[in-house]
Structures
1.
Amino acid sequence: MGTLFLVATPIGNLEDITFRAVRVLRDAALIAAEDTRTTRVLLDRYEIATPTTSYHEHTSISRADAILSALETGDVALVSDAGTPGINDPGYELIVAAIARGHAVSPIPGACAAVAALAASGLPTDQFVFAGFAPRKKSALTTWVAGLRNESRTTLVYESPHRVEETLRTLAAAYPDRSVCIAREITKRFEEFWRGTCAAAITHLEGQPPRGEYVLVIGGAVEAEVAAWEVGEVEAALRERLQNGYSGRDAAAEVAGLSGWPRREVVRLVDAVKYTAGN
Ligand code: SAM
C-alpha cells in the first residue's frame, strides 16, 4: 500500500522547496500534477525524473482511478502549480478517495501564499479565517463583505489582478478605516507588502494598476465598528435596498451583516419598512 504525499511547491521563487520534498518527488512512483508542463520546470531544476500524470479539476474518473491504482503498488506525490495542493487547488477528491481506500495521506509542508501573507502582514495572527477567493458577482461580494462586519479575526482572501480593485472598493465602502495588507507577488521579483486602511488602499491602487498575484489580509473588526446600529439606521438601510430592487430576504441578509443585528430581527422589520415605503 503506497502513501499519497501532498507536496508543497514554491509560489514563485524555485528555491522555496524543502530537501524532503525533493527526495519524496524523486522517490515516488508517480507525480500527479495540476499541470505537468508547469511542474516540469521545477522537476528539471532539481533533476527529478519521476513519471508524471495530470490531475486537475476536470480530471476524468478513469484518470483518478489510475492514480489510485498506482497507490496500490507505490507512493504517489500530488503537486499543484504552486503552493500547497488542496488549498484552493485540486486535490480534495483524490485525498478523500485515498483515505477511503485505506491509504496513508501525508503532507510535505512548504509554501502557502495565504500563510506567507499573514505572517508578513503585521496584522494579528493568533486567529484567522481563510476565505479562498472573494465572490465574483457584485451582489455576492457585497453580501460577503457585509458578513465581515462582526468578524474580529484576521481574514485572508486570494485575489486575481482583475478583481482586486473591486474587492478593495467594496471593502472600503463598508469599512474605510479597517486595516488591510495587500500582499503581492510574494517571493517573486516584485514582491510588495502594502499596509494601511481600506480607504487608503484605493488611492494606492489608483497610482499602480494591479499586476501579478495577490493575497488580501483584512484586519478584524474593532469593538467600535461592531456596536449595533440604532433601529432607525436599520430601517433606512432596508428601505434603500428595497427601493433599489432587493428582495426582502436579500435586503435583510445584507443589513443584518452590516448592522450587527440578528437576521431574524431584521427580517421582522422588512414588512414594516415595506408597508411605510408603500413597496
Ligand atoms: N495552493 C496555493 C497556495 O498554497 O497558496 C494557492 C493556489 S490559488 C489557485 C492561486 C492564488 O493564490 C492566486 O490567485 C493568488 O491569490 C495566491 N497566490 C499564489 N501565489 C502567490 C504569490 N506568489 N503572491 C501572492 N499571491 C499568491
2.
Amino acid sequence: MQATITIPATSANLGPGFDCLGLALSLYQTVTFTTREEAGLLITTTGEDAHKIPTDESNLVFEAANRLFARFGQRPSGLHIHQDNQIPIGSGLGSSSSAVLAGLFGANALLGKPLLRAQILQEATNLEGHPDNVAPAVYGGLILGVQAPDGLLVERISVPPLRVVVVLPDFHLPTAEARAALPQQVSLQDAIFNASRLGLLIRALETAAYDKIRAAMQDRLHQPYRLPLVPGLSAAYEAAYAAGAAGVALSGAGPSLIAFAPAGHEVIGEAMTAVFAAHQLPSRTWILAVDTQGSRVDIDN
Ligand code: HSE
C-alpha cells in the first residue's frame, strides 16, 4: 500500500495575527509512505535541506506517524518513508508543521483513516503548540485558528488570488530563540494596537484592499523584538515598502520576510535581497501564490 501526502508551506502571524493567523503558500513537502515486505523502517530524503533531515526514528514525519501507530496499536512491520521537500527548514515557512502533518496524514491513511481532518489538525496543534501554521496547511488559504475551551475553532477567510514575495536570508534563527526574545507581559495599548489591526487585516485581505494592508500589518507583540535578531532584517522590511510593497511581515518566527503587492514582486524581492547582501547575507527569493487546497492524501492500494 502506498499513500502520498502533499502539505503546503505556510506563513504564520502576518504581522498582528501572532499565533493565530496563517496563509498557505504554493511551496510543498511531499511524503510517500510505502508498506513493504522487508521488516524495518527506511527513510529517504530529497530536495530542500535533504541532508539535514534525520533518517532514523528521530525523523519528525516518523515521530508524528508513530504516535498514531502507537495509539491504534498497529504499525506496519516494513515501512519506507520518502520525504521530498521544497520547504526550507528553519525558515519561518512552516517546515516542521508540514512534517508533523505529513506524518499524521500518512499514518492515518495506512491505518484506514480512523481520524477526521479536524482531529488531525487538533493533534498537530497539540504537537506544535499553536494552530497558525498547521491550520492553513490542513485547509489551505487564509485561516484564523482559535484554541477555545472545547477545542480548536478554525475560520477560513476567503481571499482573492494573491501573490506574495518571500525572501529568506541565510541566517540561523531557531524558533525557540525567536520566542525567547518576546516579553511575557504586554501593555494594554499594545494589545489594543494588535487586536484592531488583526480585524482590519482580515478584512483588507478578504477584499484585496491593498491601500489598507500597510496599516493593518503593523504589529507590536513580536516583530519589534524579533527584527533586530537578524542583520539587515529591519532594513529589508523597510526596503520592501520603499520598493512598492503593500504590506510586509516577518514570516512566522522568521528569518524570512513576506511581502504582499498587486504587482512588482520581482523588484520588491530584489530590494530586500540587496539589503541582505549589504549585510553580507546571501538570500533566496520565492514568488508564490496562495495554496487553496491544503493537505492532500492520495492512496494507491
Ligand atoms: N506563531 C509562531 C511564532 C510561529 O511566531 O513563534 C512559529 O512557530
